[in-house]
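Quick one before lunch.
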Amino acid sequence: MSEMTPEYRRTLTQMMESQAYRELAAAQMFGYGLQFIPELKWLKFLTWHIREEMEHYEAVAKMYREFTGESVEGVVNARLKEKPVPFAQSWFELAMAQFLYDRGGFWQLKEYENCSYEPYRGVIQKIIREEAGHQGLGQEIVIDLCKSGKFEEVKQPLFEKWLRLGLLSFGRPNSEGNRYAIAQGLKKRDSGAVMQDFVNDIKPAVRDGGLQFPKPETLGMELPRDLDWALRKAES
Ligand SMILES: [Fe+2]
Ligand SMILES: [Fe+2]
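Model of the fe (ii) ion complex:
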């Protein structure tokens, strides 16, 4: 640990802070959403999911304390105050959030699974295994509700809102910070490459739900210019 440069230490600290923020933000967002859940079976799923997000937060907080000697809670609470994740305001929107926000987090974590800082690797691998179990249900609910025809007015705008929030999980593509983290083996690839994996992963559900990717410039964020948004028929 003594050979860590201040920059490496700083980057790793920031990675842990962002991770802790995302985990607690997910727990809070899904917790707020409980009031919109119409059926016991989904209540069971969501309460289990919230508990796992809280445990991910706890695991990152523990690692952070071991690494920095301090609590991450002050940083995370301040960031949540300053940058709250919007809360879903209906069952349909909650499903959209579960699908896109959680899925974005999953793909982001995959980039850290071979992290050059060993303790991070261990924590991340446990979280990834659990996140894999969250997948699919939000997507299934979104597709079913979209197909019901009852959400025609709201489905596309809410999709665009949460698509953007999902994409924001990856950070700005092509940044100096990205290059440094990759060179140091802290993460695998540039954010742009991860965005493409995420976009490809959600394409079948986008098509099945009768949704469309918006024009990238309407998302109001930095995206790689060559991102492939095409919904091909063969991918199902
Ligand atoms: Fe999580
Ligand atoms: Fe999750």
